[in-house]
Design a protein that fits this description.
heterodimer; A: 101 residues; mainly alpha; 3 helices; B: 180 residues; Four Helix Bundle (Hemerythrin (Met), subunit A); 3 domains
């Protein structure tokens, strides 16, 4: 049976929920970052599926831009984590509860 | 069939990224994230988005994950890896996210489920066949959608290139040693 739009949207929703769970539950900054990537990818799956089933290529162009922006975001975020680790010697959000460095 | 394999693999390895019962090690999570990215790129191939599938593997499974592994190795998180999860917050998180997912699922079913689709299916079937056969995200088609003068995305493309430059300069600024 050919998978329909709602099957793809269900997979996308499941991936997004798992990513959100990771952001809520895990305390390691790097894992939280990976979960954020997971949520971005869930949105990408939904956009590509919409683009396919509506017969319009604009969704895929949107995904192209999302991938580019996500790459920039990852590089800046990881640089921030490295800078933070140099100052505080930790990557656990429980230890980073104050705004003061 | 292929859809089930890729979708199952993506969801399963995504779960193992977040909640791995055997390992707290970030490297394990990163490896499972690579499997998720490759499965998602398989889903893109099934959806006819061939260019995006290639980009997904190159950028995510390649560049982004290498960056993650670099940082994991650089930080050396052995002490943090042994810290335990808070069981109460885990239970509450699963409860909240599970409830959210169930709401999403039931709204999907009421929109696309059999009951609401039955009267539309016959009319839409031919049209859906016609459109799904046409939209293929080959490199040429996506390039034409991006760069066509008039209804293309030339200005956003240039803005994104500036954004990448800004990110590059910002990363260099953030990661250099403290001045003085």
């Amino acid at each position: 049976m050919e998978p329909l739009l709602n099957h793809y949207l269900l997979v996308s929703g499941a991936l997004f929920a798992i990513g959100l769970l990771g952001v809520i539950v895990r305390r390691n900054l790097l894992i939280i970052y990976m979960s954020l990537e997971l949520m971005l990818n869930a949105a990408n799956v939904a956009l590509v599926a919409m683009s396919r089933f509506n017969g319009n290529l604009d969704g895929q162009v949107m995904v192209f831009f999302i991938i580019t922006v996500a790459a920039a975001e990852v590089s800046v975020g990881l640089a921030l984590i490295v800078a933070l680790y140099r100052k505080r010697q930790t990557a656990d959000v429980e230890d980073l509860a104050t705004m003061k460095l | 069939m292929l859809f089930n394999i890729f979708a199952g693999l993506a969801v399963l390895s995504a779960l193992l990224v977040v909640l791995n019962p055997l390992s707290r090690n970030p490297v394990t999570s990163a490896m499972f994230l690579v499997i998720t990215m490759i499965s998602i790129s398989g889903l893109f191939v099934l959806l006819g988005a061939y260019f995006l599938a290639a980009v997904q593997i190159l950028v995510y499974a390649g560049a982004v994950m290498v960056l993650f592994l670099f940082v994991i190795m650089l930080l050396d998180l052995q002490e943090i890896a042994r810290r335990k999860l808070n069981l109460v917050s885990l239970a509450m998180g699963i409860l909240a996210v599970g409830a959210l997912f169930l709401v999403y699922k039931s709204s999907l079913e009421s929109t696309y489920g059999e009951a609401s689709q039955q009267h539309e299916v016959a009319a839409d079937a031919d049209q859906a066949e016609a459109t799904t056969a046409k939209v293929v995200g080959s490199t040429q088609a996506l390039g034409q959608a991006l760069f066509s003068v008039g209804n293309g995305f030339i200005l956003p493309f240039e803005i994104v290139s500036v954004l990448l430059l800004v990110a590059m300069v910002g990363v260099i600024l953030l990661s250099r040693k403290e001045p003085g």
